Amino acid sequence: MSFELTQHDSVYVLTMNAEDNRFNRSSLARINELLDEVAAVQGPAALVTTGSGKFYSNGLDLDWVMSGEADMSFPELALETQRLFARTLAFPRPTVAAVNGHCFAAGAMWSLAHDLRVMRADRGFWSLPEIDIKIPFTTGMASLIQARLTPQVAHLAMTTAHRFGGEAALRAGIVDHAVAEEEVVRRAVELAAALAGNDPDTLTAIKSGMYGPVFEALTGGIA
Description:
The chain has 11 helices and 9 strands. The chain is of the alpha/beta class. The chain starts with a strand and ends with a helix.
């Protein structure tokens, strides 16, 4: 999986460049390396994550897990991905997901772990298709979704695999802004820049306090 981390003044943009940007051992390791870089910045900083092409992220790399060549089981992959969610949820810098295209399954959950979300308005869907692919949500995943969405929206998304376009996602409170394709990253960078001066220790303490039970559910194992 190809990544690049670019700097726009105080904002660091992590771009995923591998078609549908699924999570596997190598992609998770690389994302965490880049998060390490941003977390270590001295002075104002914020993080924007985005994809390229049609996808923000299509979630867990199920094809890799089932290929017979993977060095992780499905539960191991799910747990490592949950740890990414937990890290993002309590990240010491402001985080904004710039949802450039389809945002499905674990990719949609990762977007919820960010502080803010900007989505393309005209094309692309945000969806939790687990009911359709017959994979129940783990306790940690369900906790994250239910903490970040209203009960009604969480129920609809989790039990029907409803596909939300940008404008519908905005009305449902899944995303904070729905904009034209060419504006997605720019708006995300603007939002992140406005928050880049927040004290990282204070921010971590606030988010950890707000989402303590979710953090514990995400890092405690697979159930």
